[in-house]
Design goal:
The chain has 155 residues and is an alpha+beta fold. Helix content is 30%, strand content 41%. A five-stranded mixed beta barrel has the order 1-2-3-5-4.
Length: 155
């Protein structure tokens, strides 16, 4: 005849240990889901037009490409009569060298460009200093309006 031995009841310490492990696994899963959401989710998409005035590689630990677009507010004037300038700060996705070269050429030529971007929910230090990431550049081929004002033609 075989006798079956009932498993020993779990002690309080074993129950707490299992609960702690499950709680830690749940917290890790939530953290991972949050990071994936922050990394891949897009808050908004759009485009902005202006002249690229700055493009630089910045950062202490994580080097990222950052830029600025001068979006001259056409028709808006400050009290002194000068046109108002608004600056749009953006980042360039790491490894997108073609896009960086286009931005650099546009910056050096002084032409107006349309920047198409996606906005992320949060800033991650290894991705960039902003939540705005340029995805495409549309070059107009013409110098910015402020350069036309300086032209000697017609003066």
């Amino acid at each position: 005849m075989t006798t079956s031995v009932a498993p020993a009841p779990r002690t309080f310490g074993q129950k707490v240990g299992r609960f702690t492990v499950r709680l830690l696994l749940l917290a890790l899963a939530v953290l991972l889901a949050w990071l994936l959401f922050i990394y891949f989710a897009v808050y908004s998409e759009g485009s902005r037009s202006g002249m690229v005035i700055k493009l630089s590689k910045r950062g202490v630990v994580f080097k990222t490409w950052e830029g600025q677009l001068n979006m001259q507010s056409f028709g808006a004037m400050d009290p002194s009569g000068a046109s108002l300038n608004e600056v749009f700060n953006f980042s360039v996705q790491k490894g997108d060298k073609v896009l960086y070269r286009e931005l650099e050429e546009a910056s050096l030529s002084g032409e107006r460009v349309n920047l198409y971007y996606v906005e992320r929910y949060a800033r991650l230090p290894w991705r960039g200093e902003t939540t705005y990431f340029v995805t495409r550049v549309e070059r107009n081929g013409a110098p910015a309006a402020s350069d036309l004002d300086k032209s000697p033609v017609g003066h």
